[in-house]
Amino acid sequence: xxxWVAASLPAxxxxxxxxxxxxxxxxxxxxxxxxxxxxxDLSQITVLIPARNEADVIGLTLSxxxxxxxxxxxIVVDDQSTDDTATIAASFPNVxxxxxxxxxxxxxxxxxxxxxxxxxxxxxxxxxxxxDIQLQPGLLSALLVHKQRENRQFVSLMADLRxxxxxxxxxxxxxxxxxxxxxxxxxSNSSSRLVAAAAGGCILADTEALQRAGAFASLRNALIxxxxxARQVKNAGYRTWLGLSRGVVSLRPYGSLRSIHDMVARSAxxxxxxxxxxxxxxxxxxxxxxxxxxxxxxxxxxxxLGLIALVAMMLSYLPMLRYYHMRLxxxxxLPLSAVLYLGMTWSSAIRYWRxxxxxxxxxxxxx
Length: 367
Prior knowledge:
Blueprint: H1 2-19, E1 40-41, E2 45-51, H2 58-66, E3 69-70, E4 73-78, H3 85-90, E5 95-99, H4 109-118, E6 125-129, E7 133-135, H5 139-150, E8 154-160, H6 166-182, H7 185-188, E9 202-206, H8 207-212, H9 225-235, E10 240-250, H10 257-265, H11 268-271, H12 276-297, H13 303-323, H14 334-353, E11 356-360, E12 363-366
Parallel strand pairs: 1-3, 2-4, 2-6, 4-5, 8-10
Antiparallel strand pairs: 6-9, 7-10, 8-9, 11-12
């Protein structure tokens, strides 16, 4: 009897995921660009862009902003770049470039750049935009309309990550899929404070909400700064919203397994609160939900349970593949992506145990 219950666990867990009311696998929370919208008056918005050695992409980012509407104010905080980031940014009209000061101890680089830039924001709404994010025409006005319609003070969109290689296609949609499982959008978007999440690449927020939430000094050393900021905004009594968008395009190329590993490993163990117990628990859960179904397939007595688990697993991934216009056959490789992400999480933990909390943009944050 105990063995049968254990064999049923993967199927029950995957079927339960499909049936829970908050539907973490769904892509229903999204905002898309309206390319046919007329010119929008965006004079109430200031864009704040932290940029460190982004000469290869900052031009495309600023070009995307120029196409959004009229009156938009843009501030680029050049975070000690050693390339032509500042020169390229300054060549665009209505863009103000601020030279960032050296990074103080105890601050994360992006947050220090935003802290310096916020003093120059004098509009009621602030757009926090990563330097490698390009907005498609009509996206910002669509997001503003959505913010007003939903009566939210803080809205963010998960960027569409570039997929140019096998590793990109295998791992990047799965990255968004796992993020939604960890931070169910529908719960985060509710008034409940159980879950608070955001996508730091594109955040549109009331300036007052950011100020009252203590941005950015109160989260100065946060490595998962977007979710930390969303938590503080919620705790300050404001409402947040997070969704997907194909109109928020990441310009950063990954292409290789190593580059994706570096992106994930810099914060994966942080996500677990640097807890070895949680890491072991996650490892056990992954072994049950992704590995055990294949073991069950090998036995005549349990192959049906293994098949049910695998089918439910792949069904949960299909909406994400459809949303990003990918072949549904990629769902067959979801277990492989799970193994790789688990390995990256262990790699992140090993880095931490060796004294490196995170490494990004030529900066190392020690434990």
